[in-house]
Amino acid sequence: MALSKDxxxxxxxxxxxxxxxxxxxxxxxxAIDVLTNGSxxxxxxxxxxxxxxETGTAPLVWGQKFTFPKDATPTIxxxxxxxxxxxxxxxxxxEEDLALMAEMGFKVYRFSINWTRIFxxxxxxxxxxxxxxxxxxxxxxxxxxxxxxxxxxxHYETPLSLMIRYGGWSNRSLIDIFERYAKVLLERFKGRVKxxxxxxxxNAMEHAxxxxxxxxxxxxxxxxxxxxxxxxxxxxxxxxxxEIDPEMKIGQxxxxxxxxxxxCDPKDAIKVMEAQQEELFFADVQTGGRYPEYRLKKYERExxxxxxxxxxxxxxxxxPADFLSFSCxxxxxxxxxxxxxxxxxxxxxxxxxxxxxxxxxxxxTIDPYCLRLTLNTLWDRYHKPLxxxxxxxxxxxxxxxxxxxxxxxxxxxLRANLQSMKEAxxxxxxxxxxxxxxxxxxxxxxxxxxxxxxxxxxxxxxxxRGNGSLKRYKxxxxxxxxxxxxxxxxxxx
Length: 493
Ligand code: BG6
Description:
Layout: E1 8-12, H1 15-18, E2 44-50, E3 55-60, E4 72-74, H2 90-104, E5 108-112, H3 115-118, H4 129-144, E6 148-154, H5 160-166, H6 173-188, E7 195-199, H7 204-207, H8 209-213, H9 220-244, E8 249-255, E9 259-261, H10 266-286, H11 293-302, H12 310-318, E10 323-327, E11 332-334, E12 358-359, E13 365-366, H13 370-382, E14 386-390, H14 408-426, E15 432-438, E16 458-460, E17 472-474, H15 476-486
Parallel strand pairs: 1-5, 1-15, 5-6, 6-7, 7-8, 8-10, 9-11, 10-14, 14-15
Antiparallel strand pairs: 2-3, 2-4, 12-13, 16-17
6-O-phosphono-beta-D-glucopyranose is lined by residues 14, 17, 200-201, 255, 327, 346-347, 390, 394, 438, 445-447, 453.
């Protein structure tokens, strides 16, 4: 059994990492616009100011509790570099980049809408027409090239004003504010956009609550409440979308990967089981439609009490996600044993180094079996259509003097990952709607804020300090992916 002829091949990007133009045409500030660049060894910083005039920074260390001074406000300060302000300037290269995606044969392009282009403060009285017009043009451009859009409503772009006034997603007010924002877009693009995602990597609320929830106080109570509020908001968006257009499909987006035990010590197996519960809890609720017992028990133990009401649970049960999409970059290894080398991973989901697998320069594991395992786990548990909306390899690519990038390491990574995906479809019968590689074009890394950590099929001349011509160059992987799409995944040599 080969992939279906309708299989949706494409690539993905996110507004805050790609668009730049952070104040253009009335855009407001979001969480990421006050976040500096970092590196593999230095964390990104949230810059802040107090009413006394004192200024400072709060480091965003993956996997560690984020602490932010109580009486400070996140703000832009002189002397710091903020990569989201310019991204790789998609805002002014939109037609050019879409033409490159079309040249590769993309059937689908996944992008996110920057909430603060539509509502600069998140909840303004009127939407900003200039912001809507930009996405209108973008969708027209997709239509021109015969690519369907897959649109993320919120990809780490919580409006800064909502963070300051409401404390971000830990406040229930954001449920209705978000529904109103979604309504504007669902109505405006009715009949033109069928597939939507509500929150990028919704489990970032646990691992990266500043990114995922705009939380300045990331206590366990606030993270739990933030997740609950996003579940209810997602359910309301599913209900709304089906009312506006029964053809619309609203997906969940989960950061997911295979997790292995380091030893056969049963204690390691329990640790892995608990880590999987942590990850799948978010899909159990948003796609499965109910809070799992293990999570309720955890809240009981930890004294977490949700600000909720019975209607929340009815909404969650009645309006689950139509499909389940996920990001998957590599696998993780966990152990209860000491003295083993540490590894890194997406959203700081680190564990120990897998002796059987290679890593990239940022310590992320390259695992040729990861997609088959992850697809099977999700399919067995939910039996809803799946969609791989992020998978790719971050690498410090070199542009040669004659304008080439020989990224055979990326081709090898993608070939192995796509093979693993095909095995899940062909051997195990998993239903997969599509694959959007991260990232269609080079953009700023989310975790480190670097340009050096590149993922695209298209190289953009931009460095870690914002220098460079922004000129686009096709990498070797560009031609390779074009062939893969043209043969519907049959020729991956
Ligand atoms: C996911 C995000 O976490 O992984 C993307 O949805 C991100 O925004 C991608 O860019 C890769 O992570 P990073 O940190 O290497 O950019």
